[in-house]
Amino acid sequence: MSERMPRPETMRAWRVVRHGEPTDVLEQHEVAVPAPGTGELLLRTGAVAVNFPDVLLCRGEYQVRPELPFVPGIELVGEVVAVGDGVAASAASAGLRPFEPGDRVVASRIGVLSEYAIVEADAAHLAPASLDDVHAAGLVIAYQTAWFGLHRRAALQPGETLLVHAAAGGVGTAAVQLGVAAGARVIAVVGSAAKAETARAAGAETVIVRAEQEDFAAVVNELTDGRGADVVFDPVGGDAFTRTTKCIAFEGRIVVVGFASGDVAPVRANHALVKNYSVLGLHWALYQQRRPELVREAHAELVRLADAGAITPVVGGIVEFDQAPAAIQELAGGATVGRLVVRVADAVAS
């Protein structure tokens, strides 16, 4: 194991001590700083992006249920302070530069809402020099999800019309920005007028406020002269998905990203047949498991776009480490825009 400097014996960490609402079940504890195992990195955490799975982890409703008590947080930026055995050899076998102490990286793994965190080296990437910690913290999950949805699954083309649901959220703003960067015409759907400006700032040509427009499908059809949207990015599900099938273009592609509405709408195979459209599922984590080389390629492209100023994670709020439970609770309420970020340490020098 290689290490840059001595590290403290203990650290602050937020832990879920029972299941329930975030502000009720999160407690700050002093715990031992872990050592990286084989294939792992120890990071000094710079910032943690809050994600909806953090809410579900607190409630015990996530697909993975760690044993209590556990540290939530699934996405971060930090500085490598120690490298576990086998990391260098694994990188060499893949033809990659091995991580070294002092590297600034972004990564995703359950258990990072703490001053130091362990991540798997295979799931870590060098952070873009153009983004500070607060913005870099939200680059992995939202932008990788949007990238694979738009490019790998839907093959979005320049000049096509892209419809993005929940376009003011973290994943939604990423999809809007990446759609614009790809040369698409982007129509955004948001839940309230307060969120409309966020979608416009991300680059959407037209923003539809569902609270003001009962039938967004009719608006999309009108805006496209009856053709409909070529690609739809849907992290909402439920009624949003059902209505989307009324404004999908010939040979259109609906990318199912999630079910934030809590309702999983049925896919009508007969309707897809007669209208000649596709419904595509996207489970980004499977790419990490089965095609990690594609994840590395996507990250390299995201870094290029970030350095060119084409994408910048939209940060809707920054809180200090002691306010982390309130930030997760706020996300649970559904009124946030962009990403909420917990600043854990002073910005790590790039």
From TrEMBL:
Spans through the membrane: none
Domain Enoyl reductase (ER): 20-342
Record protein name field: NADPH:quinone oxidoreductase family protein
